[in-house]
Design brief:
The protein is mainly β and 78 residues long. Helix content is 0%, strand content 67%. The chain contains no helices and eight strands. The chain has a five-stranded antiparallel beta sheet with strand order 1-8-7-6-5, with no helix packed on it. It has a three-stranded antiparallel beta sheet with strand order 2-3-4, with no helix packed on it. A hairpin with a 2-residue loop joins strand 7 (62-69) and strand 8. The radius of gyration is 12 Å and the shape is globular.
Length: 78
């Protein structure tokens, strides 16, 4: 069953004012660079609840969802 994992995110604003995450730090302290942002849209997490901006990111060759819900960032964990 999936669970909501609160993550630390390093992000920056681009020249158009969009907030773009650069890396995430998982709950155990491991840091992962975001290789590419594939998509950004308003969406809900159907697995763990919560909604907001959903960033589809490529991290280590794998597509994952990163959610920004107000000032909180979370991912779907196992």
């Amino acid at each position: 069953m999936a669970r909501k994992v609160i993550v630390r995110v390093l992000a920056e604003f681009n020249e158009h004012g969009q907030l773009l995450p650069q890396s995430i730090t998982w709950e155990d302290g491991r840091r992962y660079a975001i290789d590419r942002i594939l998509d950004v849209r308003q969406a809900a997490s159907l697995k763990v609840g919560g909604s907001g901006l959903r960033y589809t990111c490529r991290i280590q060759g794998r597509a994952v969802y990163l959610f920004q819900d107000d000032n909180c960032w979370f991912m779907e964990g196992r």
